[in-house]
Specification:
Layout (H helix, E strand, L loop, with lengths): L9 E5 L2 E5 L3 H10 L2 H9 L3 H11 L4 H14 L2 H14 L6 H19 L1
Helix pairs in contact: 1-3, 2-5, 3-5
């Protein structure tokens, strides 16, 4: 498990280069402005290239020059190898750095507590 400072970061390899997607408030706001959270996750699951590019752009905090070469780098890498990592990044970005397993455990714990209190 990553420490709190690295929570939600996701390592990727893009065109042979090791990079880190970093969850920031700015990234959160930009992705939220582009598309609803669930739609972004669905688009990534379906391998939507526009969604892949936008998550890479904001998760890597790319400048205008880097954004211009991003499609070529993605073409050389392929979208499928990145799809799950990008999905995980977006999920954690919109869930305070928590993984799907952590969110599910919290939901189950709350449900169990509710059942114990009511039953």
């Amino acid at each position: 498990m990553k420490n709190a400072l690295n929570r939600g970061e996701v390592e990727i390899v893009l065109d042979g280069e090791n990079l880190t997607l970093i969850p920031t408030l700015q990234c959160f706001q930009r992705l939220a402005a582009v598309s609803p959270y669930r739609k972004t996750l669905e688009a990534l699951e379906q391998g939507d290239i526009a969604a892949v590019l936008i998550v890479l752009q904001h998760g890597l905090d790319l400048d205008a020059k880097a954004v211009k070469v991003l499609p070529e780098k993605l073409f050389k890498t392929g979208a499928i190898p990145l799809r799950h990592q990008l999905y995980d990044f977006v999920f954690m970005l919109f869930n305070a750095g928590k993984t799907q397993d952590e969110v599910l455990a919290e939901i189950n714990k709350e449900s169990d507590q509710g059942n114990a209190a009511g039953g």
